[in-house]
Write a structure and sequence with these properties.
It is built from 8 helices and 7 strands. By secondary structure, it is of the alpha/beta class. The protein has a single domain, classed as Rossmann fold.
């Protein structure tokens, strides 16, 4: 008898995280998502997952505030014990985040600190606390960005911390390999979502400019990302670990 797989997706109430959660559900995983503020959007996503025949639950989380992690995992434990009889998950997708746009010269410390706390420090210590929940043989997927490889003015803080995520992924993969846990990075290119105020989606000139920089001639869509994340959480992908997989349509090759 197979054991039901459970995925935890941070920032799963909208954008790429929502798509990842749905794709994981389509592949048979039950899903726990986190949301920062918008409980209504989170509830809608859990309903969509349940419509696919999978269990779903939403928990509030601020990935930039490590002081809240203990309470989060207590809530997660309570839910898992009630629903499944044990407090274990199989897949962790560190997706939650926000952008920042300012030139290197104009970036202030508060903005830089927020990027570090949300994308790097938060992911590091959140994953550390999640290890007691994560089954041996499980998967971790950290979300980076194409901006860690190519540079556009205005994204130095964001790109810098995403570069840190990619280094962190390799160390996680090395140290968790003994538990047969594979750890990989997915680095999306420019995607049509509400991220960063929805500029890529809503600004036609910017959309066309970015499309012209991709080998495949268009801007990315959420469906281009979620399936890759779900694949990396599958048995077929378990021999892949410590890798950075860019999903950008061949941007700036």
């Amino acid at each position: 008898m197979s054991v039901q797989k459970i995925a935890l997706v941070t920032g799963g109430s909208r954008g790429l995280g929502r798509n990842m959660a749905l794709k994981l559900a389509e592949k048979g995983s039950d899903v726990v998502i986190t949301y920062h503020q918008n409980v209504d959007k989170a509830t809608k996503v859990t309903s969509e997952i349940q419509a696919l025949g999978r269990k779903a639950h939403a928990l509030q989380l601020d990935t930039g505030d490590t002081s809240g992690f203990a309470a989060f995992f207590q809530n997660l434990r309570s839910y898992l014990l009630k629903e499944y009889g044990n407090a274990h998950i199989d897949h962790l997708i560190n997706n939650a985040g926000t952008g920042a746009y300012s030139t290197f010269e104009e970036t202030v410390e508060d903005v830089f600190d927020a990027m570090v706390n949300i994308h790097l420090k938060g992911v590091y210590f959140f994953t550390q606390k999640a290890l007691t929940f994560l089954n041996d043989g499980g998967s971790v997927v950290n979300i980076s960005s194409g901006l860690a490889r190519f540079a556009f003015p205005g994204y130095s803080a964001y790109g810098t911390v995403k570069g840190g995520v990619e280094t962190m992924t390799r160390y996680m993969a090395k140290e968790l390999g003994g538990r047969q846990i594979n750890v990989n990075t997915v680095a999306p290119g420019a995607i049509e979502t509400d991220f960063g105020g929805g500029q890529v989606r809503d600004n036609a000139d910017l959309n066309a400019q970015i499309a012209s920089l991709t080998t495949l001639g268009r801007v990315g869509l959420p469906d281009d990302i979620g399936g890759v994340v779900a694949f990396l959480c599958s048995e077929e992908a378990h021999w892949i670990t410590g890798q950075r997989i860019e999903v950008s349509g061949g941007m700036l090759l």
